[in-house]
Amino acid sequence: MISHSCPTVGEEEAAAAASVVSSERLAQGRQVAAFEEEMADRLGRRYAVAVSSGTAALALTLRALGVGQSPVLIPSYVCSALLQAAHHAGGRPLLADVEERDGNFDPSAISDASDPTIIVPHMFGQPADVRSIQEASRAHAGPP
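The chain above was modelled as a monomer; its predicted structure follows.
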């Protein structure tokens, strides 16, 4: 099981971070542009955007999806970054039950009362049951 909120940084990552810090260009420097280009190529996309944190990445994604003021369903046992991202994107975070066995999102938490955007993290290295979550979401979705 992977521990919660404990980053693993090796010597190579530490040296790369030190290089960026010593360049005095923490954002929009050469390394950031090179990283964005490499990620776009790797993902087969025209563009990639580097952001400062996972929270910023989630908020940007939710805005790009047009969440607006709609509900964003988030597991109740998760880091606060997901709640903050939903809030910063203008969404209404709703907490959902988690599975006792692994702490992942419980598909039965999806109700008829909401047609939310759903954020499904995989907890402690244990994969969430994405297929069941998709099926439950489709079963409770309103008309297109």
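The longest strand covers residues 71-75.
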